[in-house]
């Protein structure tokens, strides 16, 4: 067999497999969306769930998911950025740094269930935060943090050395150089990575079962005082996110339309993640253009 | 502005630098603290099965019988270990060639289509919650296997298929990154020498990116190993070593999620589950260690 | 210039957010008390004048009922906040005995899960009865199983439906994990003994999954709470007795259990009011029946921890 034929066969094979993957993906997404989209309506997205009667919605769950995402990011981003900057700029190469890098790597591959159990033991019980959004956000921070660190490191590594050295040569402090020269260049990479990491928060259920809880107290959407127990903004209330809700109604749902609600909620979840990805890309490009003045 | 900076340069300059250093150092300290407390708490809980409840460690690792409520309670975690390993490795066996082909397709054959459409969609897969995967697996794959193969459709095979789709993004993304970061000169040199695309991929691209590809596969296995809810829905959860790929069995994670809420913290049944979590954690260390080895080898 | 401006904004945002994070953290201790006072203020204007916050946690099977009832209770008593959590019977009992929760929901008697000295301080409130029925795949043409047949099936001695009068088809057992309260009830009252897990049997903790698997897998057998029964699965008679509300209530169908809400010692006013509400006709004849439970008041027999039946 000559090289040309081998090339053609191999190419055909790869293209076929790629096509199969695309088909699987399309089938999977199609299956979820087609089963679910018909059930999505404004009412479904805003009304509270029903336990035994048909016609419940996913309003609080959707809100909880988004709010938890924001909370997690509020905690994760500053910590992750800081740790990432330290790893890429301040840490001196050596045993200590190698060790830290190893630790970050280990943390990033911890199973979410182990993180969830740790959250139950330490955050919920030991620190006494109880089943709450805050506990959930902390648990999610634990496994988003290493991701964030890696993303920041990657972003900073992608900065051309000349630009960094130019900054230092101008007599700027290292911190100032990082902040005003390196970070802006790295931001598109960091941002895209962050938003993709946020997608994980959205879909996570195993860790949240043990930390944020499986119930949603009644919410008063006219009360925006974060300290009031009924306020949707109170971070210390238990909250069921969309992914956990899907798990719950799949396993114990008593409402006659439970399968439809699960399908609808799954579709909503996927559409949200899709939107997220698109916004991440668009925003990353937009910021890139703004900061680097390239067209 | 330049003037004012010039005037008070030394002090704010130093203070600024100090703030940066301390802030970033605190962040890393927090990270370290988190992981150490995690290891400490899980280990202390997991080890108490052996220290306080006096369960035999060797028996725990090699025992075939898991019946925590019998008299005396038996804790043999070997079926779970076998279940976890076979499911995640089989998942990687399915996902690895697919992921590699997808990566080659996206970087070498149709880069534009790949970057614009395929990559986002594959990344989207990573965002689908495991619960949804589990449910699709239970509604589609289990009935399919039940019709085609003897058995109940549930088991390692169904778990591996569900997991393979879940880890496809991990493997594909790492493979794509590795292929894309290949120096263009390497490939162009190969083409210039008259090599076909397949020859270039096979002889140049594959060997140079091999460690990265293997890293992706190990990370995929690690993710599959730790996945809980999706697996629990399709694996059947019987605490036995199965006779075939289509018979109900358990993994470490499914055993934990199945019983954690029903047992009382501090009881021997509960501690045994923490021991399983500890095993999971140790396996994570092993996986990371393997990835390290791979990376070191790639440097030689 | 624009570049710096955007960067500054980005950084300022980051740092304020960080500061917020810190503040939240520090405020958490104080938050608990704010909760209390808020609830107290609300209580002043409420009809019953009750106030306080109640945390009920535990059994996922009982959760929907308590959840539903608590919503109505909170509408009537605006000063009371009730949070209902899942987590499983074990978690519920542990948390209530350690004082982390006000109410521990459980499918089983506390004595069966906790050490004797832990269980002693808990007060039992039986709020509903759950009947458990043996179910099979709709295509299985067996209508009745005796106790001995069930034991043989669940212990793996009988592996084919033809041995109990059905078609020649292998039996697939859909069981619950050993820690499950539903399994404990089924083994205690239907089988009368604990059986070891059979090789190849399926174990699921959630009723939804059990129902789906029994409904779809040919030759499958499992057991479900009455609430989950519908035409997707076939309900079997036990020793010739139909599984229904009446047969449970008059004591002829033995496979049932209480749903418990435990408190540590005597409950405080708000918790007591809520537990009384759970036992009121409004809940017992409303939500309890709606969710497929049997009201405690309807029961003509009583059962204690040891399983002794009394009229």
Automatic annotation (TrEMBL), chain A:
Gene3D superfamilies: MetI-like. GO terms for cellular component: plasma membrane. GO terms for molecular function: phosphate transmembrane transporter activity. InterPro entries: MetI-like (IPR000515), MetI-like_sf (IPR035906), Phosphate_PstA (IPR005672). It is found in: Cell membrane. Keywords: Cell membrane, Membrane, Transmembrane, Transmembrane helix, Transport. GO terms for biological process: phosphate ion transmembrane transport. Residues 62-280 form the ABC transmembrane type-1 domain. Signal peptide: none annotated. The chain crosses the membrane at residues 12-34, 66-87, 99-123, 129-149, 181-202, 261-280. It is a multi-pass membrane protein. It holds the Pfam family BPD_transp_1. Belongs to the binding-protein-dependent transport system permease family. CysTW subfamily. This is Phosphate transport system permease protein PstA. It comes from Paenibacillus darwinianus.
Automatic annotation (TrEMBL), chain B:
It comes from Paenibacillus darwinianus. PANTHER family: ABC TRANSPORTER PERMEASE PROTEIN YQGH-RELATED (PTHR30425:SF2), PHOSPHATE TRANSPORT SYSTEM PERMEASE PROTEIN PST (PTHR30425). It comes from the Bacteria. Part of the binding-protein-dependent transport system for phosphate; probably responsible for the translocation of the substrate across the membrane. NCBIfam families: phosphate_pstC. It is a multi-pass membrane protein. GO terms for biological process: phosphate ion transport. Gene3D superfamilies: MetI-like. This is Phosphate transport system permease protein. Pfam families: BPD_transp_1. GO terms for cellular component: plasma membrane. PROSITE patterns: ABC_TM1. Keywords: Cell membrane, Membrane, Phosphate transport, Transmembrane, Transmembrane helix, Transport. It is found in: Cell membrane. GO terms for molecular function: phosphate transmembrane transporter activity. Belongs to the binding-protein-dependent transport system permease family. CysTW subfamily. The keyword tRNA processing does not apply. The chain crosses the membrane at residues 21-43, 80-109, 121-142, 154-180, 201-225, 272-294. Residues 81-291 form the ABC transmembrane type-1 domain.
UniProtKB/TrEMBL annotation, chain C:
Transmembrane segments: none annotated. GO terms for cellular component: plasma membrane. One of its GO terms (biological process) is phosphate ion transport. It comes from the Bacteria. Residues 45-282 form the PBP domain. Its main location: membrane. GO terms for molecular function: phosphate ion binding. CDD domains: PBP2_phosphate_like_1 (cd13653). The keyword Transferase does not apply. InterPro entries: PBP_domain (IPR024370), Phos-bd (IPR011862), Phosphate_ABC_transporter (IPR050811). The complex is composed of two ATP-binding proteins (PstB), two transmembrane proteins (PstC and PstA) and a solute-binding protein (PstS). PANTHER family: PERIPLASMIC PHOSPHATE BINDING COMPONENT OF PHOSPHATE ABC TRANSPORTER, PHOSPHATE-BINDING PROTEIN PSTS 1. This is Phosphate-binding protein.
């Amino acid at each position: 067999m000559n090289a040309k034929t081998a090339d053609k066969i191999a190419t055909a094979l790869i293209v076929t497999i790629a096509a199969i993957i695309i088909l699987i993906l399309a089938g999977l997404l199609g299956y979820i969306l087609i089963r679910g989209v018909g059930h999505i309506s404004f009412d479904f997205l805003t009304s509270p769930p029903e336990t035994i009667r048909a016609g419940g919605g996913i309003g609080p769950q959707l809100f909880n998911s988004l709010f938890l995402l924001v909370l997690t990011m509020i905690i994760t981003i500053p910590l992750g950025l800081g740790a990432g900057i330290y790893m890429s700029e301040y840490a001196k190469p050596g045993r200590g740094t190698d060790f830290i890098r190893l630790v970050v790597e280990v943390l990033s591959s911890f199973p979410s269930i182990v993180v969830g159990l740790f959250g139950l033991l330490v955050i919920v019980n030991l620190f006494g935060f109880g089943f709450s959004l805050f506990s959930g956000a902390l648990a999610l921070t634990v496994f988003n943090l290493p991701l964030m660190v890696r993303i920041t490191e990657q972003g900073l590594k992608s900065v051309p050395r000349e630009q960094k050295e130019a900054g230092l040569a101008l007599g700027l402090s290292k911190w100032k150089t990082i902040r005003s020269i390196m970070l802006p260049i790295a931001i598109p990479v960091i941002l895209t990575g962050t938003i993709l990491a946020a997608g994980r928060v959205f879909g996570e259920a195993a860790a949240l079962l043990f930390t944020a809880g499986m119930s949603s107290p009644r919410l008063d959407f006219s009360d925006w005082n974060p300290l009031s127990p009924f306020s949707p903004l109170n971070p210390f209330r238990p909250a069921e996110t969309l992914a956990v809700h899907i798990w719950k109604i799949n396993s114990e749902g008593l409402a006659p339309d439970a399968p439809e609600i699960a399908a609808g909620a799954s579709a909503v979840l996927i559409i949200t993640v899709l939107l997220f990805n698109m916004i991440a890309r668009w925003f990353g490009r937009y910021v890139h253009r703004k900061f680097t003045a390239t067209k | 502005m330049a003037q004012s900076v010039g005037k008070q340069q030394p002090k704010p300059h130093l203070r600024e630098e100090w703030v940066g250093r301390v802030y970033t150092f605190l962040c890393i300290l927090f990270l370290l603290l988190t992981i150490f407390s995690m290891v400490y708490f899980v280990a202390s809980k997991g080890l108490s099965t052996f220290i306080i409840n006096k369960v035999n460690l060797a028996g725990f690792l090699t025992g075939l019988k898991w019946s925590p409520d019998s008299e005396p309670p038996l804790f043999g975690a070997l079926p779970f270990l076998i279940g976890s390993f076979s499911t995640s490795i089989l998942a990687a066996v399915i996902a690895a060639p697919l992921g590699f082909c997808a990566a080659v397709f996206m970087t070498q054959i149709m880069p534009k289509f790949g970057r614009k459409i395929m990559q986002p969609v594959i990344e989207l897969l990573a965002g689908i919650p495991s619960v949804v995967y589990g449910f699709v697996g239970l509604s589609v794959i289990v009935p399919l296997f039940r019709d085609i193969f003897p058995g109940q459709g549930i088991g390692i095979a169904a778990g591996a298929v569900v997991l393979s789709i879940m880890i496809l993004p991990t493997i594909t993304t790492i493979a794509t990154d590795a292929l894309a970061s290949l120096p263009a000169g390497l490939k162009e040199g190969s083409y210039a020498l008259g090599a076909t695309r397949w020859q270039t991929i096979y002889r140049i691209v594959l060997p140079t990116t091999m460690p990265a590809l293997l890293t992706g596969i190990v990370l995929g296995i690690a993710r599959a190993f730790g996945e809980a809810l999706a697996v629990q829905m399709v694996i059947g959860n019987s605490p036995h070593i199965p006779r075939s790929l289509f018979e109900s069995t358990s993994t470490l994670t499914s055993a934990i999620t199945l019983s954690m809420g029903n047992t009382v913290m501090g009881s021997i049944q509960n501690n045994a589950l923490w021991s399983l979590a500890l095993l999971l954690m140790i396996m994570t260390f092993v996986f990371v260690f393997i990835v390290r080895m791979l990376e070191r080898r790639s440097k030689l | 210039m624009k570049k710096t401006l955007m960067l500054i904004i980005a950084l300022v945002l980051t740092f304020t957010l960080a500061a917020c994070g810190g503040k939240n953290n520090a405020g958490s201790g104080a938050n608990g008390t704010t909760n209390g006072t808020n609830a107290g203020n609300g209580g002043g204007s409420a009809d019953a004048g009750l106030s306080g916050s109640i945390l009920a946690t535990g059994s996922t099977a009982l959760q929907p009922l308590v959840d539903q009832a608590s919503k109505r209770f909170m509408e009537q008593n605006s000063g009371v906040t009730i949070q209902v959590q899942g987590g499983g019977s074990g978690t519920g009992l542990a948390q209530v005995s350690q004082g982390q929760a006000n109410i521990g929901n459980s499918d089983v008697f506390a004595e069966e899960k906790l050490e004797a000295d832990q269980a002693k301080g808990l007060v039992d409130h039986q709020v509903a009865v759950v009947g458990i029925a043996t179910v099979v795949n709709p295509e299985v043409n067996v209508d009745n199983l005796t106790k001995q047949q069930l034991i043989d099936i669940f212990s793996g001695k009988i592996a084919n439906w033809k041995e109990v009068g059905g078609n020649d088809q292998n039996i697939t057992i859909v069981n619950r994990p050993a820690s499950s309260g539903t399994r404990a009830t089924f083994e205690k009252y239907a089988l009368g003994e604990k059986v070891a897990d059979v090789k190849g049997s399926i174990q699921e903790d959630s009723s939804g999954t059990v129902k789906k698997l029994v409904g779809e897998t040919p030759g499958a057998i499992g057991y479900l709470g009455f609430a989950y029964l519908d035409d997707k699965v076939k309900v079997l008679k036990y020793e010739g007795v139909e599984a229904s509300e009446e047969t449970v209530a008059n004591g002829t169908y033995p496979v049932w259990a209480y749903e418990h809400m435990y408190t540590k010692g005597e409950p405080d006013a708000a918790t007591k009011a809520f537990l009384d509400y759970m036992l009121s006709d409004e809940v017992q004849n409303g939500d309890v029946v709606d969710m497929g439970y049997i009201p405690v008041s309807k029961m003509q027999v009583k059962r204690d921890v040891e399983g002794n039946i009394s009229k």
